[in-house]
């Protein structure tokens, strides 16, 4: 039988200090405020940390000392970063040394290659994974979570309960999709990519659906569109999961005059307590996408104790500003995550 002292030794050995690289992109539609918050909390905990901008970022290698470095533009307090200007010399932060044994790479704002992000950003993260770094979250996880079609495929594959969902196959495919969905109006239309509630539309009739679909395809012939039954509710739930632990839960009331509950759309979140069933199902959804730190969104069942909730999506780069504020009376969610990441069993090279 293990003695208490031996168990404490094993626990301490697993939890070691680490260094943190946050790579993100400051965009007018998605400012890098969460990255700045994580940097602030990391420094408070004594974690050596750099917040870098994907634009202009590159790695360099010191052959003599066998050392790898990341080079990025400096990110100001608040998340803003100066953009390249032909009239000014762009200054880089001091190179930050990287080692897969003690450095975590947190990838935020990766975007869709060629659409809302550079392919080279994606390739850089892929290279970090190849070198054995712990990346939060991996490109595979990002691919699943940033694509609502793939997210649904993974939900179906792992028996994660969700609203009835069908894909529209082409610009004139709304009638067939409606037959497959077999749901009363209003229904929910979602574009394959989109975040913060953008690209989600409440559709009231078959005629308006056809018009919306044709317009979307006219703007982008390669767009992916899904339809979902509307599960009527007064609120949905955001669960922040780190590893195998629920670190924060908030209830997001539906915005007045809207059907969405995103904090970015004006929802005023409050703390929330999960049932055991909701907790188990949320952890299963996080495991399904292979994420280390994720945000899981669901609509509660009417009988929360007995019936499974309806999962909407898993977010691989959840915003933490809203939940940090909503749960501040229970301590910092970000600090809980950063402390949890000391557990080396969560690392890629564990």
UniProtKB/TrEMBL annotation:
<dbReference type="GO" id="GO:0046872">
    <property type="term" value="F:metal ion binding"/>
</dbReference>
<feature type="domain" description="ATP-grasp">
    <location>
        <begin position="152"/>
        <end position="342"/>
    </location>
</feature>
<dbReference type="InterPro" id="IPR011761">
    <property type="entry name" value="ATP-grasp"/>
</dbReference>
<dbReference type="GO" id="GO:0016879">
    <property type="term" value="F:ligase activity, forming carbon-nitrogen bonds"/>
</dbReference>
<dbReference type="GO" id="GO:0005737">
    <property type="term" value="C:cytoplasm"/>
</dbReference>
<dbReference type="InterPro" id="IPR013815">
    <property type="entry name" value="ATP_grasp_subdomain_1"/>
</dbReference>
<dbReference type="Pfam" id="PF08443">
    <property type="entry name" value="RimK"/>
</dbReference>
<dbReference type="GO" id="GO:0005524">
    <property type="term" value="F:ATP binding"/>
</dbReference>
<dbReference type="InterPro" id="IPR013651">
    <property type="entry name" value="ATP-grasp_RimK-type"/>
</dbReference>
<protein>
    <recommendedName>
        <fullName>ATP-grasp domain-containing protein</fullName>
    </recommendedName>
</protein>
């Amino acid at each position: 039988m293990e003695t208490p002292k031996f168990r404490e030794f094993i626990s301490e050995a697993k939890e070691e200090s680490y260094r943190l690289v946050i790579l993100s992109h400051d965009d007018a539609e998605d400012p890098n405020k969460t990255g700045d918050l994580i940097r602030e909390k990391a420094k408070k905990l004594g974690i050596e940390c750099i917040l870098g901008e994907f634009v202009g970022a590159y790695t360099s290698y010191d052959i003599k000392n066998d050392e790898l470095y990341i080079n990025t533009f400096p990110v100001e307090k608040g998340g803003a970063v100066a953009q390249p200007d032909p009239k000014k010399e762009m200054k880089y932060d001091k190179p930050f040394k990287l080692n897969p044994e003690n450095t975590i790479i947190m990838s935020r704002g990766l975007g869709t290659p060629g659409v809302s992000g550079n392919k080279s950003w994606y390739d850089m993260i892929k290279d970090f994974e190849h070198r054995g770094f712990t990346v939060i979250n991996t490109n595979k996880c990002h691919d699943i979570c940033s694509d609502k079609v793939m997210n649904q495929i993974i939900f179906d594959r792992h028996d994660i309960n969700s609203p009835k969902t069908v894909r529209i196959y082409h610009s004139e495919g709304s009638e067939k999709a409606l037959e497959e969905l077999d749901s009363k109006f209003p229904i929910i239309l979602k574009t394959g990519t989109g975040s913060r509630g953008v690209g989600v539309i409440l559709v009231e009739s078959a005629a308006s659906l056809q018009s919306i679909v044709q317009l979307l395809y006219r703007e982008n012939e390669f767009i992916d569109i899904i339809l979902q039954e509307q599960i009527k509710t007064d609120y949905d739930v955001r669960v922040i999961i780190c590893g195998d632990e629920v670190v924060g839960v908030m209830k997001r009331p539906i915005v007045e005059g809207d059907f969405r509950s995103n904090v970015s759309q004006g929802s005023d979140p409050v703390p929330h307590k999960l049932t055991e069933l909701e907790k188990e199902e949320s952890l299963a959804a996080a495991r399904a996408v292979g994420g280390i730190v994720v945000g899981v969104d669901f609509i509660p069942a009417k009988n929360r104790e007995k019936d499974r909730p309806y999962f909407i999506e898993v977010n691989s780069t959840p915003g933490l500003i809203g939940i940090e504020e909503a749960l501040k009376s229970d301590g910092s969610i970000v600090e809980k995550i950063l402390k949890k990441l000391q557990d080396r069993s969560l690392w890629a090279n564990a």
